[in-house]
Amino acid sequence: MDIESPEKLIELLDRHAYLADDGLATAVFLALRMRRPLFLEGEAGVGKTELAKTLAGLLGAPLIRLQCYEGLDAAQALYDWDFARQLLHLKAAEAAGVTDPRRLEGEIYERRFLLARPLLKALETQPSVLLVDEIDRADDEFEAFLLEVLSDFTISIPELGTIRAETPPVVVVTSNRTREVHDALKRRCLYHWLEHPSFDREVAILLRRQPACTETLARQVAEAADRLRRADLVKPPGIAETLDWTEALLTLGAQELDPDRAAATLGAALKYREDVEHVLGNGLLRRD
After folding, report:
1. Which of 16, 21, 132, 243 is deepest in the core (most CB within 10 A)?
2. Do the beta carbons of residue 129 and residue 56 sit within 8 Å?
3. CB 170 within 8 A of CB 130
4. What 3-state DSSP class applies to 233?
5. Of the ranges 23-32, 71-80, 175-184, which is most confident?
6. DSSP SS3 for 130
7. Residue 98, class by beta-carbon neighbours within 10 Å (0-12 exposed, 13-18 middle, 19+ buried)?
8. CA dist 260 → 11, 114, 216, 264 (Å)
9. Mean pLDDT, to the nearest integer, of 61-74?
10. Using one digit for the tens of pLDDT, what is the confidence trace for 204-217?
C-alpha cells in the first residue's frame, strides 16, 4: 500500500478506529517509507501493541507477535527442529529398509521438519508485521541477538543455509521502560515516545471504540482517568484500562460516572490493591 503522507496515514488509521496524533503518524510513516523498525516506548496501556495490530489490518498483512520475557533465547524466537516428527521419520525409514546414514541425516534436516518461530516466520512471510512486544523484559543477550537479525533481516541455519527476507517485514518494537534498552538497538530503529492521550483525544477514542458510550460518560471517565494519572499510584490507568472501565460501566447500564458506580468498577481501571485503597481512601473518584 502506497501511503503518501503522515496526514493520509492518520486518515487510514482512523478508519481502523486508531486515533493517532501528528507525531506518532509521522514516526510510523517514516518507518514504513525508510523500511526501518519502529521503537515505541511508553507506559503500559497507551496503545503501542494496538498500533501494531492496527497496522497489520491496514496493510492487509498477518501480525506475527514475539512476546518477550526473561529467559527468552534465540531458539524460542527463531526456529527449532520438530524432534518428534524427525524420530517418526527415522522409524519409518528403518521399517522401509533405509540404512544409508548420510541419506537419513539429509532427510531429517529438510525444511519440512523445521518449526518456524516468530522471527523466522516474519522473514518468510511477505508482507508481514512483526511485533516484538516488551523487549525490556528480555535479557541483554537476546537484545543483542535481535539487533543482529534486524540489521540485515537474514537468518543463518547451519543445516539449510541462509534465509533472507525478500521484503523486510514492518517491525514494531515496544518497551514499557522497566529497564533501559541498549543504545545499539535504538540506533537501528526510529524512536517514538508514546504519551497518554490528551483529554480531548481520549474522549474521542472512548466514543470511537465504545459506540454505546455517551459523550457525558466519556468525558467523565477521561476526567477520572486524568485524576488517577496525577495521583501517586503504582500503575496509573492507560487508555486500555479506560476503555475497559467504560465497557464495564456500559455493561452495568451506567449513563454517567457516579462515585458509587465508579468505585464498584474500579478493578477495570486499577490492577493493584494499594492503588485501589489509595484512590478510595482519598476520595479521588469524587468530581470537584
Report:
1. 132
2. yes
3. yes
4. coil
5. 23-32
6. strand
7. middle
8. 39, 56, 17, 6
9. 94
10. 999 999 999 999 99
Stretch among 51-55, 86-90, 248-252 having the lowest mean pLDDT:
86-90
The closest of 206, 212, 211, 214 to 269, measured between CA atoms, is 206
- Residue-wise pLDDT for 68-82, tens only, equals 999 998 889 999 988
**Rg (Cα) of the chain, in Å, rounded?**
24
Note whether 21 and 207 are within 8 A (CB).
no
Confidence of residue 288 (pLDDT cuts 50, 70, 90): low
Residue for cell digits 527442529?
Answer: 81
Of 242, 238, 237, 224, which is closest to residue 287 (Cα–Cα)? 224
Q: And the C-alpha cell for 50? A: 494496538
Return d(Cα 245, Cα 222) in angstroms, integer: 10
C-alpha to C-alpha distances, 109 to 79, 83, 123, nearest whole angstrom: 13, 10, 20
Secondary structure of residue 123 in the 3-state scheme: helix
Cβ–Cβ < 8 Å for 16, 57: yes
Closest alpha carbon to 34 in 189, 147, 145:
189
Calpha distance 221→243 (Å, rounded)? 9
Q: What is the pTM of this model?
A: 0.89
CA 227/CA 218 separation, integer angstroms: 14
Give the type of residue at 11: E
User: How far, in Å, CA of 169 to CA of 126, rounded?
Assistant: 7
